[in-house]
Design brief:
Number of strands: 7
Strand order of the largest sheet: 1-2-3-4-5-7-6
CATH superfamily: Gcn5-related N-acetyltransferase (GNAT)
Structural class: alpha+beta
Number of domains: 1
Order of helices and strands: EHHEEEHEHEE
Radius of gyration: 15 Å
Low-confidence stretches: none
Mean pLDDT: 94
Largest sheet: 7 strands, mixed
CATH architecture: 3-Layer(aba) Sandwich
């Protein structure tokens, strides 16, 4: 059970990168081989996110880090244009990126997203078309599919939003 979500620190970097490696391997073996290919996210990106205060870790009752994610408050440039749909609203929002679990605890994504709503009542998320697990999680949590966005490398993502 997730008992704490806190900002990641430089001391968490090795554990965070290990969790991303586990998540990449899991995605590869469940039909989503291209979303985080090539070692994404890089250690340099995670260091930037830690320093910016965007990287978070999830801990269980024993204080073991079992998940990680990125939450960015404010506008995301890749969300400016949405295709084949529209956003639910244009109010200020936060974006959740790169939710990953060590596989040691169930419900990491749900706990991350619930915590994100304590920080902002209007959340946007995107995921790869092959990431069926995340699509299922988002649907089960009441997110609405809004359309397609294109990330900085030009690849498409399915975009979702939920607001309170």
């Amino acid at each position: 059970m997730i008992t704490q979500i806190r900002p990641a620190t430089h001391a968490d970097l090795a554990e965070v990168m290990a969790i991303y490696a586990i998540a990449r391997d899991h995605m590869f073996h469940t039909g989503n081989a291209s979303q985080w290919a090539g070692g994404y996210p890089s250690e340099a990106l995670i260091v930037e996110e830690i320093e910016a205060g965007h990287s978070f870790v999830c801990e269980n009752e024993e204080g073991v880090t079992v998940g990680t994610f990125c939450l960015i408050q404010g506008e995301d440039p890749t969300y400016e244009k949405i295709y084949d749909g529209e956003w639910l609203n244009h109010r200020p929002y936060a974006t959740v990126h790169r939710i990953a679990s060590s596989g040691k605890e169930k419900g990491v994504a749900k706990a991350c997203i619930a915590w994100c709503f304590t920080q902002c009542p209007n959340i946007r998320v995107d995921t790869h078309r092959d990431n069926r697990a995340m699509q299922h999680i988002l649907a089960s949590l009441g997110f609405t599919y809004c359309g397609i966005i294109f990330v900085s490398n030009g690849t498409e993502r399915m975009a979702y939003q939920k607001t309170w």
